[in-house]
Design goal:
The protein is built from six helices and three strands. By secondary structure, the chain is mainly alpha-helical. A three-stranded mixed beta sheet has the order 2-1-3.
């Protein structure tokens, strides 16, 4: 790109673009840090989410097991009732003994299962109590996190508004630049890092802090236009605060 194709005003506009992007990056970094703080505050809530979900799943599994045992007890009681009816009318001693044994076995099994159900009832009540306590803690933590997030949101309102304004301003500045100059600037950003445009003061490049040729320093100061540091290849401007 020839020097004559780029005016001093365009270089100043490019410097303005860089200042906007640098300030935007600073604000974004700050907002990211604040967001990270909110994420840390929410870590306990996420732990409680997992714990509460696990407790509810465990309760659901036990309730299904309880219902299955209840169903088995009902079936056994039905068998016992039918066997007892047959006992009243059976005449064969062998058949009587078989039915009697079946009634006794099923009755015994019913008793065992009912003991299991009694124990499970206590356990289920304990699980429900634990879930209620966890849910209460979860609710308190959720309110705390919500309050912190709202506070962070309020505290960063100005930064977010500034960032939005800068985004609009950046687009306007880019439109004012020749596309080739903007493309050159973006390419330099990728190769040199955060700064593509730097000042020259007392013959020193403020990008690499090395001396540039005296004649080039004079040209940057007097003529403006597009000049590059011979060492770091950044674009040079004459005023440090431009």
């Amino acid at each position: 790109m020839r020097n004559l194709n780029v005016t001093r005003e365009q270089i100043q506009t490019l410097m303005r673009l860089q200042n906007i992007e640098s300030e935007s990056a600073r604000i974004e970094k700050k907002l990211k840090g604040v967001t990270s703080q909110a994420s840390v505050q929410g870590a306990r809530l996420r732990e409680l989410d997992v714990e509460l979900q696990g407790a509810r799943e465990a309760l659901d599994g036990e309730q299904k097991r309880y219902a299955a045992i209840e169903e088995e007890v009902a079936e056994l009681n039905t068998r016992v009732a039918k066997s007892q009816e047959y006992l009243r009318v059976v005449t064969n001693n062998k058949d009587y003994q078989v039915l009697r044994r079946e009634v006794d076995d099923n009755t015994k099994r019913v008793g065992e299962l009912e003991e299991v159900l009694i124990t499970m009832l206590d356990e289920l009540e304990g699980q429900k109590k634990q879930i209620a306590e966890l849910a209460a803690v979860h609710g308190e933590e959720a309110e705390k996190v919500k309050s912190i997030e709202q506070e962070i949101y309020n505290d960063t309102a100005e930064e977010r508004k500034t960032l939005e304004s800068m985004s609009v301003e950046r687009e306007e500045v880019i439109k004012a630049l020749p596309p080739a100059l903007f493309a050159h600037y973006e390419k330099l950003l990728k190769t040199t890092g955060r700064l593509a445009v730097v000042a020259v003061s007392k013959g020193v490049c403020f990008g690499c802090f090395m001396n540039i040729p005296p004649q080039q320093a004079i040209e940057v100061q007097q003529q403006g236009g597009l000049h590059h540091c011979p060492r770091c290849h950044r674009i040079l401007v004459s005023e440090p605060n431009a």
